[in-house]
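agent> Task received from the user: take the single chain below, predict its 3D structure, and emit structure tokens. No templates, no multimer pairing.
agent> Plan: (1) validate residues, (2) run structure prediction, (3) serialize to tokens, (4) report one or two observations.
agent> Step 1 OK, no nonstandard residues flagged.
tool_call: predict_structure(input=
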Amino acid sequence: MAAPRTLYEAIRETFDFKKKSAEDFSVELGMSVNSIYRWNQTEDSVGFADLPLRRLLSVLNVSNNNAILDFLEARRGRISVKVPRVTSLPKNDESKMISDYQLITVGAIKALTEFLEKPSRINYLNCDDALKDVLRKTVAIDKYSAKKASGQFEMEFN
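)
tool_result: status=success, residues=158
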């Protein structure tokens, strides 16, 4: 499923009244049905303006800090990875990119093995960090590969 393009679309998808009524949402959230309906109005309405989430993106942009987003992702059992900007690389840098990815991946396997052999809080944190590093690097390489495959870079044909 494609990600919603606007906050309004995301809210409409979240508050799916075909699956659960506004009344059910209000009871489970401990708020009025009226608030639920107001939050589901178009972005230029007064009700939508009351939605605290509407300001979150501005807060994240102004602070240049994703701690709130990371916290919310963790609470939902998800992980977010920033999609990096990528540019074309010379062939020798592409080889270095592959080598770096291999080192990060091997490091994660080593950290996971150590954790599984000796479960401890420290080993868990090391393993968690190493696995997240692999995810971040994977996202970066995926974006680079997609751009290269689509011909957005000047490709060398030998």
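agent> Step 4: summary for the user.
The helical segments are 7-14, 22-29, 33-39, 46-49, 56-63, 67-75, 91-117, 121-149.
agent> Done.
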